[in-house]
Structures are given as structure tokens and as C-alpha cells.
Structure to design on (109 residues):
């Protein structure tokens, strides 16, 4: 095959005429946007979308947490307390498992 020739048939009429052809057709020629009216009006892009507002709010919150020393200290205290509660819960769970195991052994005798 020559380096200068395109492996796709770029004539759009050829791609429409034959549905089950064996030529390598460019798969992007006949694609249309899912909703061209929204694309023209700009409803799905820019500052009008809710995703931009969500991203801006999340970015502001993350920036606040990363730059405010008091907020960081409060978050670390909360994480520390959560870790303590988790460890206490795990100890309680271990005790219950031992009690259940002892009850099972008592029933077997």
C-alpha cells in the first residue's frame, strides 16, 4: 500500500450506499451528535451546567480544608475519635465472639 493513500474511503456517498461492504470505512464520517440542539445552544457546556457549580463548591471546600489550620486540627480530632470508637467496637466484638464460643463449648458438654 502506498504511504500517501488513505486506507479509508472518505466519500460519504460510498459509505451510505453499501451497508455490508468489505471496504474499510471511516467510522466517524456518519456520526451525529446525540442532541445537536443542545450543542448549538450551549446548554451542556460552560458555566450554565450544574456540574460546574458542584465542582466549584467542592474545590472551594477542599481549598478551605487544605489552607485553614483550625479546620485541619478539627478534622484530625474527629478522625482520632472515630478511630477510638472503631477500636472500642472491635474490642466489644471480640468479647462477644469469645462469649459465644464459650457458650457453644458449654452446650457441647
Amino acid at each position: 500500500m502506498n504511504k500517501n493513500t488513505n486506507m479509508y474511503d472518505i466519500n460519504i456517498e460510498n459509505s451510505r450506499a453499501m451497508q455490508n461492504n468489505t471496504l474499510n470505512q471511516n467510522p466517524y464520517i456518519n456520526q451525529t451528535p446525540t442532541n445537536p440542539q443542545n450543542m448549538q445552544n450551549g446548554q451542556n457546556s460552560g458555566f450554565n451546567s450544574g456540574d460546574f457549580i458542584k465542582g466549584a463548591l467542592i474545590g472551594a471546600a477542599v481549598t478551605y480544608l487544605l489552607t485553614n489550620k483550625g479546620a485541619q486540627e478539627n478534622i484530625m480530632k474527629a478522625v482520632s475519635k472515630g478511630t477510638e470508637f472503631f477500636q472500642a467496637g472491635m474490642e466489644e466484638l471480640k468479647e462477644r465472639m469469645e462469649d459465644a464460643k464459650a457458650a457453644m463449648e458449654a452446650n457441647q458438654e
User: Anything to note?
Assistant: The radius of gyration is 32 Å. The CA atoms of residues 62 and 68 lie 10 Å apart. The mean pLDDT is 78.
